[in-house]
Records
---
Amino acid sequence: MEVTGENLYEAAKKVQNERKVSAYIEAGGVAAAVLSSSGRIYTGVCIDTCCTLGICAERNAIFNMITNGESVIRKVIAIMPDGKTGAPCGACRELMVQLMPKTYQDIEIMLDYETGKVVTLGTLTPEWWIGK
């Protein structure tokens, strides 16, 4: 069965659960889902700390994927606090490029879930420092 943008959106939405973890940490403002080459969906949420030791939702989901023995990303979606989707930040793009330096251009990013707009990481990150 082909994994759709709706499947990814629902997986990320399921874990979002924006919350205060402690006086210094908040989690779930942004949630992400990553589809690996095996067809599994990995999720993660952003974790914001008062001393900038937090992590973006996309990187959290990618690290979850790596922890589970995979390293090839097919699709990524990130859900913002307002429920809309958006592009990964520079740090998340950098991780994807370093993880897949020869094929990062092919990773599909769900840029706008409402309109179905999908772009590739190569479009968002055309001339990265690592090169081809």
Note: The radius of gyration is 14 Å.
---
Amino acid sequence: MDVYCSYKNIMKHIDSIQKGDIVYVISDIVRLARSAMEHNEDFDLDVLLDTITDKVGKGGTVLVPTFNWDFCKGKTFDYKKSPSMTGILGNAAIKRKDFIRTKHPIYSFCVWGADRDLLFERDPEDSFGEGTIFEYLIEKSAKAFVIDLPSMEGISVLHYIEQKVGVPFRFHKTFTAGYIDWNQEEKIKSCSMYVRNYDYDAKERLEPMNHLLECLNISDTTMINEIPFRVVRLKEMAQILEYDFRYNDARNTYQYKGQKQPKILTEKYDW
């Protein structure tokens, strides 16, 4: 769009998100906030969240990541006080009464909408496997709403597929630390995570997968104020990732020791 669009109106132009959708919001809002202020607008995180919840309506669900990895270092997770390490939008959601934080001490989400209470009841020990929010996102054909980031950036559903397939460069590890719950009761809690095996020196190389998702129209991009807003259909993305991990040696997603020369799969499905 050539004419400035207020951040309050951006969701009106995101046609890939509709009433009743389940939306996982991933964001880098620095440029969005700067653009608003350059056009004499006060930028309000709560207003931004309201525009997203209004878009999906009462039948929809909005999830904002509030991940915090201090638990992995043996630090106590405080359900009410431990901040999100995945952006200020998550910290804004934590403060709101219409959002509720899920229970996981590492991979929590703040959730609004139809499935809010259902997701609060989920309390898996695992980080990425059965019963987790990531499984829910795929099973329910959720959409990632990615603000000013590449399609795959920050979509931790990737790790759910890695664990499902059993990629060679990760293994299960259990972490134990203090946990202060929503009632401010303190206990000791353990959680498992499918962590990286550093012997493989695995490095993410997401550009080929970003390209493939765009070519297959699994990721739709809308440019507003020169900022990309992407909507990624997570179930279809998961299918492409699973194929890449099972049959293509993860060559469109990672580089690691012992792997064949990376290549890019095209929109013609040249696997």
Note: The chain has a mean pLDDT of 94.
---
Amino acid sequence: MTIKRIGHRYSDSKSGATIDVWFPRSNKEIARSCLAQKVGLIKGDFVEVEIASVDDAPKSAEEAYLRLHLLSECAVKPNEINLDGVFGLLNNVAWTSAGPVLPNEVESLRELIAGEDHQLNVTSIDKFPRMTDYVIPEGVRIGNADRVRLGAHLASGTTVMHEGFCNFNAGTLGSSMVEGRISAGVVIGDGSDIGGGASIMGTLSGGGTQVISMGKKNLLGANAGLGISLGDNCIIESGLYITAGTKIKMPDGEVVSARTLSGQSGLLFRRHSQTGAVEAIVTDGSLWGGLNTALHSND
């Protein structure tokens, strides 16, 4: 299926390097304006981008931006679109309240807008901007927009609290509470809760290739960590970090590596308070109570 969209592009006036591209959902030619453009540091124009196949790697920054938009619009799911080489295609950008510029142009921007009634703020220096500056997903709440990158996939009913984080090519497939970290490549099923300070291993740091996923109605306790996939109705107690090599004591006394339990459902992972051994027991995952539906009706 061919995807063709019209976007508004900002580029550096001196080098011509692409800074960003915004693709309106309406697919209309809608121009943006900012002080950085007014003073001539960046230029704006319209560009039509066509993706013949999402299975092929992106070939340009413009195409990379369109793929990130598709993820945040929930038009495609994480790991269903090829993003190979995306870091090499995107420029590092200073995202400022006066518009995006290359980092080495920030001082020039300050000087050129000195006569404007504007206090310049630099919110980040990164290859990826905030999702909410480009895409507003339907039916979500986000406590701190700085912590959700463009390319995050947040399904309707998702709540991302102030300390929650969601990387690009990762996110939720249904109503979920996100108070911890969802790293790149990670997918969270409907009805799951990522507790405060919790973290899920992604596919970027250390060059990892194993995609971690959580099924439906799982609870990852506060300050816990996950390095294997979970099926449905699982619980990991607060403060317990499970990696693939963690030794797990089963109900019959057998000790196995956690990787052998990856993807299984209905398990409670806990640490014995006296021996310190990590245990897995079969449990009714619904015992943790599930999400508060009133909190995730994000109309």
Note: The mean pLDDT is 94.
